[in-house]
Amino acid sequence: MIKSIVAHTAEVDDKDAAVAEILAKVQGEGPLLKNSVGLIYTVPDFIHSGVAQAVSTAFPFAVVGTTTIAALTADTDDPEMSLTLTILTSDDVNFIPALTEPFDGEDDGPIRDAYGKAVARAHEEGLSEGESPKLILSYVPLLNNVGGDFFVNSMAEISGGVPNFGTLSVDNTIDYAESSVLYEGGHYRDRYAFVLLTGEVDMKFHIATLPAERVFSDRGVITDVSGNLIKAVNDIPVSDYLVSLGLKRDADGVVIGVNVYPFVVDFGDGSDPVIRVLFAITPEGYAVCGGNVPQGAVISVGYIDADIVVEATTGKLDEIIEEGVPGTGVMLAFSCIGRYLTLGYNSDMEMNVVRGKLGAAGMNYSFMYSGGEICPVKGTGMDGERGAGSAVNRFHNDTFTVLTLS
After folding, report:
1. Three-class SS of residue 298?
2. How confident is the model at residue 217 (pLDDT cuts 50, 70, 90)?
3. Helix or strand or coil: residue 165?
4. Tens digits of per-residue pLDDT, 81-120?
5. Quick check: helix, strand or coil at residue 398?
6. What pLDDT digit, counting tens, does each position of 16-62 carry?
């Protein structure tokens, strides 16, 4: 069993007051059990003032997390100027935190080394030889030369496919220059932090993307691609393919409004499709996507706006609530910053849905906006039960992802 305590503070200037507020919440909902870990989400202002560091070091267990543009709990008044702390505590689940060395390109050595040490520690604390962790919680840095798919795919290979749930860091600056991974009081631009969970972990994954009716019926095959750069679909430039679906070009020949037309990508391996946001069209007519896409994948083009964001999140939360509140557990939710930006001037619309739905259901939760979501999807052989059967870890864009733990 996992018990959760969710706290927050809006006190950005006074470290002592912020720590006192967090501690009062934790002590009021205690006691903590044998094993604990803290998950921290904050905007960079709380790092600048030292509040994030003070909160992180106020506890006798590791506190791990990331920066964001907005974080929400049941008691948060201003999610865009808030620090949240979610404590997971248990007598029969172990939490093993780890931090990699810095990354300089797509070398999986730092992940392999940190994971190996974390698993060795897990064995020292009772994990049987030959047994794998049940879950990985991941906090991945936003880097110019290393994509989210690299971290997800590398960890999947190294761990043997242990379910992985997490986020790519982001922040509230215009160029995300202060996005950071947080670990035991430190903040890092170029390191990957994660937590291994071992023992009796009761978990379920939920994903909301685009309603089927908001996806074009045409399906194309990617015939030329390099990483996240799609060059051709059906052997024609991807820009020409988009125009064939009805998108328009401006006077300079540039396809208009591509940011609201994400790709729905079927990897062709039996797993559920994922969303790839379309950032731009290059002068050569290539599509720059928010994640890697394999050669031969089948794509459809979708459409996203504020109404779709709210509709998808509402539907998924209704589904989760109908399945039942996880007792003393918690719902960890990440929504893509692309969805936040789609909401425009009404940026709190999705958070209001989360607050209203989960508040009425009495569910303990924490929610934040991410630079990219990490969540397993159903794979070949999946028996339809969330958290069971075969699953594939994926990096997502424009997606609302949820993990319930109990």
Report:
1. strand
2. confident
3. strand
4. 999 999 999 999 999 999 999 999 899 999 999 999 999 9
5. coil
6. 999 999 999 999 987 999 999 999 999 999 999 999 999 999 999 99
How far are the Cα atoms of 20, 138, 333, 394 from residue 162, in angstroms, in the given order? 37, 12, 19, 12
> Encoding tokens for residue 376?
């397993």
pLDDT band at 327 (very low <50, low <70, confident <90, very high): low
- What per-residue string of b and e applies to 26-62 under the rule 16 or more CB within 10 Å gives b? beebeebeebbbbbbbbbbbbbebebbbbbbebbebb
Reduced to 3 states (helix: H, G, I; strand: E, B; else coil), residue 67 is strand
pLDDT at 385 over 80: no
Is the Cβ–Cβ distance between 376 and 205 less than 8 Å? Answer: yes
Token readout for 253 is 């020949």
**How many residues in total does the chain contain?**
406
The rounded distance, in Å, linking the Cα atoms of 123 and 272 is 33
Per-residue confidence (pLDDT) for residue 249, from 0 to 100: 87
**CB atoms < 10 A from the CB of 359, how many?**
12
Cα 149 to Cα 146: distance, rounded to the nearest angstrom: 8
CA distances from 160 to 103, 118, 299 (A): 22, 14, 28
- Alpha-carbon distance of 136 to 159, in angstroms, equals 9
- If pLDDT is split at 50, 70 and 90, which confidence band does 325 have? low
- Angstrom distances, CA of residue 83 to CA of 52, 78, 122, 191, 353: 8, 10, 29, 21, 20
The phi, psi pair for 394, rounded to 5°, reads -135, 155
* CA–CA gap between residue 129 and residue 144 (Å, rounded): 38
Rounded mean pLDDT, 361-369: 92
Enumerate residues 6+ apart whose C-beta is below 8 A from 372: 140, 148, 167, 168, 290, 291, 336, 395, 396, 397
